[in-house]
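Internal tracking record. Fields below are filled automatically when a chain is submitted to the structure queue. Please do not edit lines marked as system-generated. If the sequence contains nonstandard residues, flag them in the REMARKS field before resubmitting.
Queue: standard
Priority: normal
Entity type: single polypeptide chain
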Amino acid sequence: MPTTLDIDTLRALLAIVELKSFSRAAEQLGRSQSAISLRIARLEGVVGHHLLERARGRVLGPTAKGAELVAHAREIIALNERAIAAMRQPMSDEWIRLGVPADFLERDFASAFGEIRSRFPEARLSVRTDLSARLAEDIDHGRLDLAFYKRAPSNAADAAIAFEPMAWFGKVATSHQSNDAVPLVAFADGCAYRDEALRSLHLGGREWTIACEARSFSALVGAVKAGLGYAALPIRLGERKSLRHAGDLADLPQLNAVELALGIAEGCNLPFARTIGGIIAERCALA
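SYSTEM-GENERATED OUTPUT FOLLOWS
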């Protein structure tokens, strides 16, 4: 008979005691009721005591031995969580080199950065913005530890964390005919937004010209608002910057979604990097 107490089973016991219900505990834990019941039966077999008082299918509370185990369970779970948190903390002198696309700074990055500093006060982040293609390359070559970048939807091994629906934004100051070359406002070659714009125009048989190649997101937004050309951007990002949808009169081809991926360099502190990545993804992913 095993003598090891399983952490997830102890969490199930606490949930049942707190909620006084197997079904509600199962729902809270994302498990089936039968799976929770089996866990508790096995736990009772390990400790050699009934742990719950029941009547007519209802949970009345823990038995005397159950209450004793509940107290131990709280300590075990708390210790487990402290151990995990300690292992995920970076070394005090460890730098995490983070790469993000420039438009991340226009999202909720300040909030994400504040949460990282609050949860990991010893963390030392070095942030660099660049085009997505360069960020992905720098992860592969170990020049960055952690990076977010955009790409066309793929089956690549690194995790896709969101898909961002795209749209055209802008209103050209001069009259624009459907057979004219489309004036584009875009980042330099290597930007996933630019790649998607050119892919859709090529597929639609449209000519194009780069009316403005922007080095920053604020410059791109300014060029679009000035009427220099059209930009392909995530819908929520363009709307957040109060950009005007191009509309049907522009006769521009439909855009596919762009994938937002998270890359972690080989040899990086994986649990900590994933935690940092999760915080940033939750705050900065638009879709």
